[in-house]
Amino acid sequence: MNLDTLYMKQAIIEAKKAEELGEVPIGAIIVKDQEVIASAYNLRETSQRPMSHAECIAIEKASEHIGSWRLEGCTLYVTLEPCPMCAGAIIQSRIEKVVYGASDPKAGCAGTLMNLLQDQRFNHQTEVVSGILESECGNLLTSFFRNLRQVKKKRQEENE
């Protein structure tokens, strides 16, 4: 098993923690020198804060861990392609590489809708690797939203 797969499996574990809380199951870890220095999962619903995406929380934790906002030499592993907000945080924190599982056709900014991470107009570009354990990452999200719709439908039926 290569390192990208190994670390993505750890990000999936984080995503499952989010799902247990009723959060959208997205997980992230940050690795430096083959050591996991931060891990996080979505907490937007729990915290009611829009910036509580897994990537942003992991970036904050990693910065605290190394004592710098510059996360040079770090790789971010995330189960879903980063959105524009997270892509901005990745650029601003100088993360060297991003590895993601599933593409995001609604908000993906690491190659799907646009690629902010490799835009030459910014003063920092990030290497991007996509599709690592893509099916497993995508299935987590598909299953979560299917269950959410079923619960919503059941509640509507009960109220009729």
TrEMBL record:
GO terms for biological process: tRNA wobble adenosine to inosine editing. It comes from the Bacteria. SUPFAM superfamilies: Cytidine deaminase-like. Residues 2-120 form the CMP/dCMP-type deaminase domain. It catalyses: adenosine(34) in tRNA + H2O + H(+) = inosine(34) in tRNA + NH4(+). Binds 1 zinc ion per subunit. GO terms for molecular function: tRNA-specific adenosine-34 deaminase activity; zinc ion binding. InterPro entries: APOBEC/CMP_deaminase_Zn-bd (IPR016192), CMP_dCMP_dom (IPR002125), Cytidine_deaminase-like (IPR016193), MafB19-deam (IPR058535), tRNA_aden_deaminase (IPR028883). Zn(2+) binds at H53, C83, C86. NCBIfam families: PRK10860.1. This is tRNA-specific adenosine deaminase. It comes from Terrilactibacillus tamarindi. The gene is tadA.
